[in-house]
Structure formats: structure tokens, C-alpha cells
Specification:
By secondary structure, the chain is mainly alpha-helical. The chain contains five helices and two strands; from the N terminus they run E-H-H-H-H-H-E. The protein has a single domain (2-64), classed as 434 Repressor (Amino-terminal Domain).
């Protein structure tokens, strides 16, 4: 199972969902889908923007855990 730790990184950077959504160019609703792990896929361009804005690596956001 893939776990999305986007909330953790946002908290570390003291960034709100609205601010991150605006800075990466997606809607707050789509960001919410990503944060809750309900997304079926994520574009590499979106992941790249998230990493750029939050100054992190993809592994800081996405984690694999056995069910």
C-alpha cells in the first residue's frame, strides 16, 4: 500500500492546503484527493511541483507499507 505523507511535509513547512494548491497550480479539491490517498495516480509534473515548493524528495511524500 502506498501511504501519502503530504500532510506531514506541509506541517513541517508550515504551509496550508490552499497555499500549496495555489503554488503548484491545482485545485484545493484535487490536493485533498492527493492528501487523503484516494488518488489513483499522480502526474510526475505534479509530484515535481510539490517537491519544488516543499523543498523535499518524492520519498518524503510517498511511502510503501505492506498491508
Amino acid at each position: 500500500m502506498i501511504v501519502v505523507n503530504l500532510d506531514v511535509m506541509m506541517a513541517r513547512r508550515k504551509m496550508s492546503s490552499g497555499e500549496l494548491a495555489e503554488r503548484i497550480g491545482i485545485t484545493p479539491a484535487n490536493l485533498s484527493v492527493l492528501k487523503t490517498g484516494k488518488a489513483k495516480a499522480m502526474r510526475f509534473s505534479t509530484l515535481e511541483q510539490i517537491c519544488r515548493v516543499l523543498e523535499c524528495q518524492p520519498g518524503d511524500i510517498l511511502e510503501y507499507k505492506e498491508e
